[in-house]
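Replying to the earlier thread about multi-chain prediction with a worked example.

Input:
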Amino acid sequence: ILNVEQSPQSLHVQEGDSTNFTCSFPSSNFYALHWYRWETAKSPEALFVMTLNGDEKKKGRISATLNTKEGYSYLYIKGSQPEDSATYLCASSYTSGNTGKLIFGQGTTLQVKP
Amino acid sequence: EPEVTQTPSHQVTQMGQEVILRCVPISNHLYFYWYRQILGQKVEFLVSFYNNEISEKSEIFDDQFSVERPDGSNFTLKIRSTKLEDSAMYFCASNRGGREQFFGPGTRLTVL
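Result:
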């Protein structure tokens, strides 16, 4: 059974703090790692899709890294703002079968206080 | 910007009733998915659909569940006889063949 784990489960930070979350995933037959940002009552929004070991991607104040050999990814938010408050989901997909199904972690809920 | 839409946003039903959850994927997408999240648990894969047939389904997706793409635009999930444990947020997603999946906002199903 493929298991993706995220930590921490929740995080409360002050505006301006930088923060990071971890996603660990099985590395065998790995295909891609996805990060989503999800606010209640909205669609999960794709932040990054990464495939190559050592990949680093950046979007504004948010960046992510990928280590496919050891099976982990980090998401960093620099200078957190209240509008960053959301649940951050990571999901991995695998080459065997390759129907594109995503295996999700439990998410990290971020609360940024003004 | 194109988006995946889902209706209704919230559905309340009695145990044993049939429900149909509707999704309109992005128009040029080829692969379609249903996922669900039971409160407090992980988002879990239910089924993938390509070329008018199921390409993969999870253990959860038993005979009570079915999917259909009746008219080339809608993608539906039917639960024939709902159980209390079917209460969850159901997400539809679509993909045009690349790696990125685009998600709808979800339908919250409450079974009483």
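Chain A touches chain B at residues 4, 31-32, 34, 36, 41-44, 46, 49, 51, 89, 91, 93, 97, 99-107 (CB under 8 Å).

Feel free to reuse this layout for your own posts.
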